[in-house]
Amino acid sequence: MRYRQGPPQMGPPRPPRKCFYCFEIDHLFLFCPKKTEDEKKGLILVDKFMVRFANGEPIPIEHNMSIKDCIRKHFPLSIAVMI
Ligand SMILES: [Zn+2]
Question: Per the domain annotation, does 10 fall within a domain?
């Protein structure tokens, strides 16, 4: 049972806790299945909250783009794998 306490305009709206790897909201970065998939494919290296390309290059993060999309946009050709 949930009851609203006070008017809804009180307080800032809570931002959705979305995954910053793929921008989906049903999980967080640490548990991202897309991240695990890309890691298994050998596209990326993951160290806790840090993600790099498999060759060690940093991933350029663009505004309003998920890491997953940035990876696909900026993937270095030196890593010869199929995305
Ligand atoms: Zn995710």
Answer: no
Instruction: Please tell me the distance between residue 35's alpha carbon and the centre of ligand 1 in angstroms.
Output: 7
pTM: 0.72
Tell me what pLDDT residue 77 has. 74
Rounded CA-CA distance 65/73 in Å is 10
- Intervals of the chain under pLDDT 50: none
Task: Tell me, in angstroms, the distance from the centre of ligand 1 to residue 79's CA.
Answer: 23
Total domains present in the chain = 1
Cα 6 to Cα 10, 11, 24: the distances in Å are 7, 10, 30
CA 14 – ligand 1 centroid, Å:
19
What is the span of the domain harbouring residue 70? 29-82
